[in-house]
Write a structure and sequence with these properties.
The protein is of the alpha+beta class and about 100 residues long. It folds into 2 domains: about 35 residues; about 55 residues, no CATH class. Strands 1-2-3 form a 3-stranded antiparallel β-sheet, with no helix packed on it. The longest helix has 17 residues. The protein starts with a helix and ends with a helix. About 10% of the residues are buried. About 5% of the residues have low confidence. It comes from Racocetra persica. This is 7258_t:CDS:1.
Length: about 100
């Protein structure tokens, strides 16, 4: 694995070749595609609250059905939103352990 300094030097050399016209079109296309692939948007990690819920069916674009571990009968949400799930554990869930309820 290359260090960030080596990676930067390689990128600068590639840019210099492109500016001077000394790199082939194929090399230029490969270099630009490598830069674009590393700049892709990363997905957001799941909120900590999901540790206390069953992640159900994926609804759309990273949204999931949520089912409370502690509720009997199981309470569920068609689309689990972290703020709503936190409020449920803190204020509504009758079987949630007190330490967890206080945390949220």
């Amino acid at each position: 694995m290359e260090s960030s300094e080596e990676n930067l030097q390689k990128r600068n050399a590639d840019l210099a070749e492109i500016e001077n016209g000394s790199g082939s079109e194929e090399e230029c296309a490969t270099n630009s595609s490598n830069r674009n692939s590393s700049a892709k948007k990363k997905s957001r990690p799941f909120a900590e609250i999901w540790d206390y819920y069953i992640k159900g069916v994926g609804k759309s674009n990273g949204h999931y059905e949520a089912i409370c571990y502690y509720c009997v009968p199981k309470k569920s949400w068609a689309r689990g939103k972290p703020a709503v799930l936190e409020a449920h554990l803190a204020n509504e869930c009758p079987n949630c352990p007190e330490t967890i309820s206080r945390y949220w």
